[in-house]
Every structure is written in C-alpha cells, then in structure tokens.
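Fold these two proteins, one after the other.
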Amino acid sequence: MMTKPVPAGHPRQKVPGTPPPGGARPPTRRGPLARLFAKSPAKPGEAFGAPGQGQSLLISVITVAALLLIWIAITSSGMIKPLFLPGPRAIFEKFIQVSTDGFAGSTLWQHTLISLGRVFGAFALACVTAIPIGIMMGVSRIARGVFDPPIEFYRPLPPLAYLPLVIIWFGIGEFSKMFLIYLAIFAPLAIAARAGVRSVSMEQIHAAYSMGASPRQIVMHVIVKSALPEIFTGMRIGIGVGWTTLVAAEMVASSSGLGFMVLNAAEFLASDVVIMGIIVIGVFAFSFDLLMRYLEKVLVPWKGKV
C-alpha cells in the first residue's frame, strides 16, 4: 500500500534549519569553565539540587595552583623584596634546612610534635568537659543558670587579655600553656553543644515519649544524636581557635613549638622561617578539619535529611 507524499509546508514535514516543534533547540556544547562551575544534577528522589551540592575538589586545586602562580610571579618579578616575601623555592629550601639542622635548638619536627601535643591535649580535655556541660545547659535550666554567665563573660575576651592572670596563678610551665588553649576551645564547644540540644525538634521528643522512652533514653538516643552536627561544627571551630591561641601561649617562657619558632624568627626578620611555620600550622589545621568533615559524614549520615 503506497502512502501519499507529504505536501510542502505541511506540519509533518521537517524543513532543514528550523527548530523542532515547541520552540525547543538542541543543547549547545558548553566550554570547560561552564562545565567546571555547572551545578550538579539532582539526586534521585530530589526535584531540585540542594544549594552547594556537588564536588569542589577540582575548583580548590585550581585555586591553590593560581595562588601559587601569583606568588611565584610576584617574587620573581622583584615587586617585593625577599626580606618581606621570599619565593616558594626559598621556603622549600628553608623547610629542608630546618628539618635537618633545626632552628632555635630544635628541629622542625620537634617543634611540630610539641605544638601538636599542646593543642590536641587541650582539645581532648575540652571535648571531655565542654560537650557534657553544653548538653546539660541545653536540657537543664539549673545548669544553664550556673554555667552560662561565666562562659558568656569570658568567651569574647581575647586569650592575651587573661594570659597574665593565668601566669600569675599557674606560673610559666607547661600547664599554663595548655590551660590557656583549653579555655579558648572550651567556650565555642560548649555553646555549640548547647545550640545543638536546643535545635532538637519537639516532635521527635514527643514521639519517643509516646513509645515509652525514659528521660535518660530521650537525652542519650534523641537529643545527643540530634545535636551531633552542631557538636562537630563546634569542634571544628574550637580546634581553629586552639591553633590561634597556640602562638599566644608559646609567647611566654617557651623554648620550643611552632608558635615559638615563628615569633623567634620574626625578631630576626627571618621571613622564610615565619612563612614556613605558618604553612606548617595551616596544613595541620586544615588536615584535622578534613578529618572532622569525614567523621561527621560517617557518624552523622542523616545531617540535612531530617
């Protein structure tokens, strides 16, 4: 059976160069920058992609490479004297020299281990004490009335403000340095734990009570688990404050540590040692932050989904 030919101009006839019905046009090829910064597709079950969804590792690598190239270009052109901003090669050579020969009586690794012990020792002590106190402040008005005034009073104070008092009370030994770092970490961690408890929805608590849960079970299995995202955020903020306070703590009668090394090098205008110490501190702080992000992803998989 033969079909009739479609006359010219008929809607069924496709004319070359004309867009398809409905005005839709074939997708155009995007450039590399457009593909790099394009939003990730929505996951199954989601109508729209969540804000900020997608991987940013490649963008971060490009950003670091661009900053490194700018650094090399500025130092190579002579715009800034090496006394004030040494080049990456000079920093690397100083890193090798201090790692082997040492600086101020200790090698770079000895300075690093001492500072790590001070920061993470104070951080561990703050986690053991600040998180339970923050949870108690969230669930008990008595605990909130007892701990809230002193925490909110000293929290805005810079560590250098009460450093002289810590020295008067505890001397210039190792305890005073760790205690100063501990105080700096304690306040943001306790406040984050309290905020996490206060953010728990009442529907979850009522549902647990309706199923026969006791007050202790409510706190352990509902409130604490719901507060974990805020607690992890407080831990990330607290360790950053701890590294900041490390330099202030090692200013007083210290003969080792990364903060001491940076301050001692600054007195002799050794900019390469100062920048090297800053980079080492930043690398360890950023590595710990990445570890905390990974632990949060593993231990709190429900974050952002409830």
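Now the second one:
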Amino acid sequence: MNSASSRSRTLKTVGALGMAAAAAVLMTGCGQSSDSATSAATSEAAKVVPQKQTTSPSASAELTEDQQERKKVLDATKVTFDDAATTATGEVAGGKLVDLDLEGVDDDDRESPSPTATGSPTGTASPTGTASPTGTASPTGTASPNGTSSPSASPGAEGPVWVAEVAEKDGTVHTVRINAVDGKVIEARVDADQDADDKKETADRLAQATQTPQQAAKVATEKKKGTVTSVSLDDNEGNGVIWQVDVVGSDWKKTTFDVDAKNDTIIREETDND
C-alpha cells in the first residue's frame, strides 16, 4: 500500500513537470512569433513612410545689392503703378502719361538694359536722376500758372516716390511727383528746359502710340508675374515707338520688356540677374 502511494506521487510530479515544460515551450514560441510579426510590420512601414530629415534646410541664396534695394523700396510702396498713373494724368488737363518711374529702383541703369533706349521722351534728363526739390509740399499739387515748380517736400522724408512725366497735346511735359505710400501729390510742375523740338518729338511719339501704358504693363505682367516699377514711351530705333516696362518679380530680379506701342506685342525682354 505504501509502495502504490509512492508511485502515484511520483507520476503526479512527473506529469506536473511535463505540463510546465510544455507551457514554457508554448510561451517561447508565441513570444518569438510576436517579435517576428512586430519586426516585419516595422520593416514594411519603413518602406512606406519616408525617413524624417535630420539635416536643417539650406539657407536661401543671398540677395544682391540691387535686389536688396528693390525689396526695400517695394516693401515700403503702397501705391500701385495704375493708381500713380491715374493721379499723375489727373494733374494735367488732357494730359497723357509718357513716363512713370518708382524712384530708388534701378535708378543708375534706368535706360541701360535696352539698346533702343534714347533717354527721356522729352529729350532732357529724367527727373529721377536729379536732386529732388526741397521745401513744403503744395497743398493742391498743381503747377503754378507761370510754369514754375511748386515747392515740395523732401522724398527722403516722404518715403518712396513715383515720378511721372505727363504731356499736353502739344508735347509740353509736366513732372508730377507722388508719394508712393499715401498717394498724395508732392509736386507738379512744367519742365522748364523744353524747347520746340523736344515738344514736337514728344507729341509725335504720343500720336504713334495707339496703346496705353496701362495696356503695355498688363502685357508685361501677363508674361512675368510681378510689380511694375517703370513704364516709359520710347523710340524703337526709327521703327515706331515702344513702351519700355520694368517688372520686378518675387525673386526681386528685374525684367525689362519692350512692348510695341501699336499692337501690344512684346518685341524684346531682358532679365537683370543683379
């Protein structure tokens, strides 16, 4: 009887040990299977999800001195070319715009990009290349009856300035300076240094230009998105007349377009990468 009980206890112990071993094997197998599945899923996800960049993005290219100056002036300018053109022509009864330039943007090479440029339509120096008059701005902004200039405020104090040349039917040119921040007229005067030939040249060019400067500016900005900083009526080396339009893009580079003043066709363009 004692012998039978001993054998029974031994069998129970062996059975328990066997069950424990089987459970251990089963748990080990499950663990390996789980780890393997997790590893495979991670590997597949890595193929789909791009690895996160650890390097910082490269710095943008530095702007040239000319580009910095364009950005500085245009950031401060609130009055568009169209609005400045409307204000300028409103200062001269029956007047037509022959030149409009945002002072401070490429003043040094205003006429250099195009081989067709022959200077100001009046045959005289552009008003943007001369020192600005000083004094107090005229409240009306109109030219005085004797053709002398009204006193004006310093452009340095006023900020960016649009400088326009507006011609009467006989070619007499008026210079109109407009604050490019608030749109107010700083000065309006008749150019005193015109002679009969200058007036005739301007009148002849205007007679040939069947397209307006606004139309030419629209053609240019449709070709290159950007801000119009200058429009000037010029001679195309004896082959009619052109509107020369400067457009500054979002990269702060300037592109000059020569637009036929009769049919709005772009006959030339050049980008200044400086």
